[in-house]
Amino acid sequence: MSFAPFYAALADPLADARAAKARGQGVAGYLGPAVPVELLTAAGLASVHLMGKPGPTPLADKWMEPCFDPIVRSVLDQVLAGDLAFLDAIVLPRTNDSQQRLYYYLCELRRIGAAVPEPILVDIQLTGSPPAQAYNRARMGELAETFARIGGPLELTGAIRLHNARRARLSALRNKGLSGADGLVTLIASRLMSGAAFDAALDALAPAPAVGRRVLVTGNAVDRPAIHAAVAARGGVVVADEHGLGDHLIGARVAETGDPLTALAAAAAQTPAARSMPYDPGRLVACAKVARAEVVLFHFIKEEEAMTWDYPSDRAALERAGIRVGCLADQPYPLDERALAAALEECLP
Amino acid sequence: MTTKQTGTRSAKVLDCTALATRHQREFVKNLQERVIENGEPFAIVQADTPHEIFHAMDIPIVTNQWWASYIAAKQLSPHYFDVLDRAGYPRSSCRYCSLGLACTLDNDPKTAPWGGLPRPTVLVARLTCDCIQRVFALWADALGSTFYPLEAPGWEVKDAHWYEHNRHDWESVYSTQRIDLMVEEMKGLIALLERETGRKFDEAKLVELMNAINEQEELHAETARLVTRTRPCPVGIADQMPNVMIPQWHRGDPWAVAHARRFRDEVKARVEEGASVAPNEKLRLMWIGAGLWHDPGFYNALEERYGAVFVWSMYLPFAGAKYPRYGLEEPLRALASRICGMNEVLHLPPWMNEWMISEAKACGIDAVVMLQPETNRLSVSGTKITRHALEAAGVPVFEMSADMVDATHWSHDKVVAEISRFLEQRCGAKVIAQ
């Protein structure tokens, strides 16, 4: 069993996307688990989740204000540096504030003449009201037309089945013990590698059961396994990553019967997001119980402005359920390893 | 409890300013009487929600932004931020929209303005950022009330010159699909209000109100032209804000229309007399951002020394640019078009930057001071793009890192000194009086 292809993908996140482009295939980059990758696949487009690069972002800083998600800032910096010029489109969801604002910034930069791939918005609403559901269905139809224009005629049923199968395999592996750094990297690689290469690499995996005190990581997206390594060094194991670059990437199964666009709109609206509503204080406890986590570690970037409002209630609910809680608040990008050690000292002594 | 005094008083010259603030005091007194003594329903709403529905149903509203600014003006924001800290909410939480929640959570009638707000029938917010649904849901829980969210969908059709077209062509400027969604949501809100209050919504009343609002906002538009195009500027920001914002909270009400006329007349008289904020006006400044509620005197700080006058703040020009709506055959659609871009045009490109450039040119602006509230993504969005656009148009911009309501790190003297250096270096400002 080897996780090497997944670590290689994380080390060079655009490699497969560039290769697809070199073969003449259209390629879309995107941010966030709410983007319906099924539609991209159905249109014959290769897709890649865009990743942040820690470090200075001088090009983005010129246009983007300080309080944006640093991964979003890094993506803008990569766009302005020309690193993403090979993409045919950048797809961004309405369900995350920093990401949806990037859509407007990219549109404006294009308008004033910057070389920017076509920005596309996945305009999904989250109140769940009947008008919002009707709105989401209509927008999903328009999105399908847009992707068909960039890629080609849609083969939607097959694409939904393909991604559902991948979801089922990832979920099964999670249940069998896929965990720790390997777990996180596998989940991220599922959105970086070409589908065929990822599925082939997944075939070779037979994860061993997770050993150690079981930890669930939640909050803002964690895009590299520093937390997982630190937890392992203390004899623990991260068994669940309840965030935008972890288990949320598996996503809910998309219905294979009925109108596929309605099913995709529903799945996108159900994907946990910073602005998900209504807030359910029992959700995180339920996730921790499913994962049999003994400890929950929150990770908040200093720019976070939504999930931090849930934190007091989440913490109280977890503690009532007998689960220890640690919190890494106001984190820079990448996170502060001394703060990580201190947080783990508290919750994973 | 002690409060830290950080602000300075503003200089006001118009008689109608005192009338506006007196009306607001009376409104609040009346609100307390209606809600507490008579048990009438009221609502807590965000500024960018359809107030017109409540007005048409004669349901009083308290606007969150106004309430926050009122709390800040009482120098109470540091106290309430401590309340949020003690409740476990991280410091990075949005300040502007959470002061009212903190006041409720504190549950201390001795400290709270007016003893705190009573239980509203409903709280309404448009989901323009990631945190507002959290803040309003928590607030509704704390008050034992209901939160009714309005979606803020994406906006893919971009008419950069919206301010020239949206009075009549609102359907195309704001997109049919976005208007459709908000109309359905407003119908749901109306049904909730009818159910909870027993009051009936009358579309004819809404049309009447929309016509009155058009009259009010056109008066404000005329006043804005008089204030921002006349040299020297006849009326500063300290007078502009209450005279447009207080009527805006009561828009379409006979008092609000009459006050808009009174404001216009008084400004017009000053223009005709040649009266000005600073007779020695040398530099015309534009303020971009929400009001600096904890230090209203800031806007007057550079007048004597440099003859630098803040002639422009969004509140007055925005009334004429965004509110009037013609073609009221389907009044809910017209109303939805007013509301569904309210925040976006002020904080996102291309709407924000193109409007600011247009206004800066029309008003003969020499320099811009731009508020950068670093803990509030919604408020700070679009400012750097706007800065580039303004600088490219030849207008120097000073980025001022400060919060609208949080005075914790505010130093009046330090900021005034920094802006002074900027004006001297970038605009050639000369000291004309110490």
Structure in words:
The complex is a heterodimer of chains A (349) and B (434). Chain A is α/β, with parallel strands linked by helices and 349 residues long. Chain A has two domains: 4-156, Rossmann fold (3-Layer(aba) Sandwich); 179-347, Rossmann fold. Chain A has 15 helices and eight strands. In chain A, the strands form two sheets. Chain A has a four-stranded parallel beta sheet with strand order 2-1-3-4, sandwiched between helices. Chain A is globular. Chain B is α/β, with parallel strands linked by helices. Helices cover 52% and strands 9% of the residues of chain B. Chain B has helices at residues 15-37, 51-56, 64-73, 77-86, 99-106, 132-143, 162-165, 170-174, 176-197, 203-229, 237-249, 254-273, 303-306, 315-322, 331-339, 344-347, 351-362, 377-380, 383-392, 412-427; strands spanning 43-45, 61-63, 122-126, 146-150, 283-288, 308-313, 367-372, 397-401. Chain B has a four-stranded parallel beta sheet, with helices on both faces. A four-stranded parallel beta sheet of chain B has the order 6-5-7-8, sandwiched between helices. In chain B, helix 10 crosses helix 14 (315-322). The longest helix of chain B is centred in the middle third of the chain and has 27 residues, at 203-229. The two termini of chain B are 37 Å apart.
